[in-house]
């Protein structure tokens, strides 16, 4: 009978995190127990167990991909994070620093001395160094630049010369170039001599002797065509290319639209100076999405979930202050109608419904508009059409759901007039929410701000104050 090898299913990322947390907890328990014992015996036991746990933890970390280690570091409190970070092999520091979020990277860099930072940075390519350099101490950057060869130094300076939202800041300098007047067989022999191809190489870049881009040769064309053919016969002459000063998010959208894996970056003279790859574009899209979510909630920057109280406070206080002001305005609106509320207590129970539904509808509208603006689907020519459409949707929703809550109000309080006021207030507040949901992001964009910046806070403020004023105002006019 032959023995069948049974492979254990790969642990999920959550399982690996749980294993690391368990080892850290076990370590703390052992330390607490041994500290209670006196004498050399207790100290010896503690040292042995401590070393055993660290070896096991380090073995688990060595088996993980750098991105998985980064995930685990982000999910740990600062003390545990630094414990795990010290167990990571030095040659992996650079890869992991590039994978973690900006806020977590700051805590890791603060725990490293200059020697460790230099060792980690020397393992990086030019484009990776450009990503990390702004967060390193100035003396470390200076020493690092001095240690690079002339080509690498020029590449790093080139990448640093562009804004982080431009293509030039994200381009990769590692690529394979060929000439158009050689055969595919020559290209294949050339590739075999290389130790390895740069990551995400799905095409080779065809240039002339001056470095001007003439086209691209997809790897699949290289493999399936007759080796005797010339590159010029097989290559694509009109590849999608980018300039280094273009907006990186526009490039990311082009990658999605044309299903690109890599694309050339050329200067104003059409000379090939770098390439963009899908991994950078995916990271950019993810970061843009996270930033948009944070901005809509009024958070100024990405926040380490385990950051200090003071750091979190500084990140959140500004929009909370604005929210407090708008809440005070809403309370004063209610104060204007204290007499009406005293005479008809039902108003106090019903008015949060009007404000709440208006806020929800406004957030739906603002999310759709911000998304459309991010995709460049909003232009001066279609703004009025978008506004009319959103107002029409809100009008229909207001009549339908306002009618429903109006019937409920009648059933609860036995007043048809209250039900009609409720329906009218709901409809008017939804119309206000739609109008402000379009106006707020477009106004922010007009003044050069992120359309999502604090939009959720602002729309809620408008629909709260507006909803209270509309409902209580109608009630005062028609029910008192």
Biggest sheet layout: 3 strands, mixed
- The overall strand count is 5
Q: Which strands sit side by side, in order, in the main sheet?
A: 1-2-3
How many domains in all? Answer: 3
Mean pLDDT: 86
CATH level-1 class of the largest domain: Mainly Alpha
What does this 3D model show about the protein?
This protein has 22 helices and 5 strands. The longest helix has 31 residues, at 383-413. It has helices at 13-35, 40-62, 66-74, 78-87, 93-99, 102-110, 114-121, 126-132, 138-147, 150-160, 167-170, 184-193, 219-224, 231-234, 248-258, 278-296, 309-335, 338-343, 346-374, 383-413, 416-446, 455-479; strands spanning 177-178, 203-207, 213-218, 262-266, 272-277. The protein is mostly helical. α3 crosses α5 (93-99) and α17 runs parallel beside α22. Strands 1-2-3 form a 3-stranded mixed beta sheet. The chain has a two-stranded antiparallel sheet with strand order 4-5. The protein folds into 3 domains: 13-164, MgtE N-terminal fold, CATH 1.25.60; 177-279, CBS-domain; 316-479, SLC41 divalent cation transporters, integral membrane domain (Tetracycline Repressor, domain 2, Orthogonal Bundle).
Topology:
Blueprint lengths: L12 H23 L4 H23 L3 H9 L3 H10 L5 H7 L2 H9 L3 H8 L4 H7 L5 H10 L2 H11 L6 H4 L6 E2 L5 H10 L9 E5 L5 E6 H6 L6 H4 L13 H11 L3 E5 L5 E6 H19 L12 H27 L2 H6 L2 H29 L8 H31 L2 H31 L8 H25 L1
Parallel strand pairs: 1-2
Antiparallel strand pairs: 2-3, 4-5
Helix pairs in contact: 1-2, 3-5, 7-9, 8-10, 15-16, 17-22, 19-20, 19-21, 19-22, 20-21, 21-22
């Amino acid at each position: 009978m032959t023995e069948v090898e049974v492979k254990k299913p790969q642990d999920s990322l959550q399982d690996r995190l749980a294993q690391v947390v368990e080892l850290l907890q076990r370590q703390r328990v052992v330390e607490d127990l041994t500290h209670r014992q006196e004498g050399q015996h207790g100290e010896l036991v503690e040292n042995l167990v401590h070393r055993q746990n660290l070896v096991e933890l380090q073995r688990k970390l060595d088996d993980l991909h750098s991105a998985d280690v980064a995930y685990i570091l982000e999910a740990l409190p600062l003390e545990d994070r630094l414990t795990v970070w010290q167990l990571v092999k030095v040659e992996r520091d650079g890869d992991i620093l590039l994978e973690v979020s900006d806020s977590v990277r700051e805590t890791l860099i603060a725990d490293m001395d200059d020697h460790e930072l230099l060792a980690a940075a020397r393992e990086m390519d030019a484009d990776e160094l450009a990503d990390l350099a702004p967060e390193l101490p100035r003396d470390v950057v200076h020493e690092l630049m001095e240690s690079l060869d002339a080509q690498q130094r020029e590449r790093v300076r080139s990448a640093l010369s562009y804004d982080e939202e431009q293509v030039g800041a994200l381009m990769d300098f590692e690529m394979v170039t060929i000439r158009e007047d050689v055969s595919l067989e020559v290209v294949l022999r050339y590739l075999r001599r290389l130790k390895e191809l740069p990551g995400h190489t799905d095409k080779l870049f065809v240039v002339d002797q001056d470095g001007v881009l003439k086209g691209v040769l997809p790897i699949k064309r290289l493999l399936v065509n007759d080796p005797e053919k010339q590159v010029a016969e097989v290559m694509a002459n009109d590849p999608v290319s980018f300039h280094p000063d273009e907006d990186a998010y526009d490039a990311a959208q082009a990658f999605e639209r044309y299903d690109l894996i890599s694309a050339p970056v050329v200067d104003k003279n059409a000379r090939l100076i770098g390439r963009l790859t899908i991994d950078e574009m995916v990271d950019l899209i993810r970061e843009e999405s996270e930033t948009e979510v944070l901005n809509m909630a009024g958070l100024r920057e990405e926040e380490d979930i385990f950051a200090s109280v003071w750091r979190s406070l500084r990140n959140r206080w500004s929009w909370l202050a604005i929210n407090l002001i708008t809440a005070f305005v809403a309370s004063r609106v209610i104060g204007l109608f204290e007499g009406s509320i005293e005479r008809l207590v039902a108003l106090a129970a019903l008015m949060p419904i009007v404000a709440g539904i208006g806020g929800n509808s406004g957030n739906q509208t603002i999310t759709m508009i911000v998304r459309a603006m991010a995709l460049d689907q909003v232009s001066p020519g279609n703004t009025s059409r978008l506004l009319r459409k959103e107002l029409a949707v809100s009008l229909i929703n207001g009549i339908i759901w306002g009618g429903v809550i109006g019937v409920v109000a009648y059933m609860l309080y036995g007043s048809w007039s209250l039900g009609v006021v409720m329906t009218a207030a709901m409809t008017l507040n939804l119309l206000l929410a739609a109008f402000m949901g379009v106006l707020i992001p477009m106004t922010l964009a007009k003044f050069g701000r992120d359309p999502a910046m604090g939009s959720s806070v602002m729309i809620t403020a408008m629909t709260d104050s507006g909803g209270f004023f509309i409902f209580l105002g109608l009630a005062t006019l028609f029910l008192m």
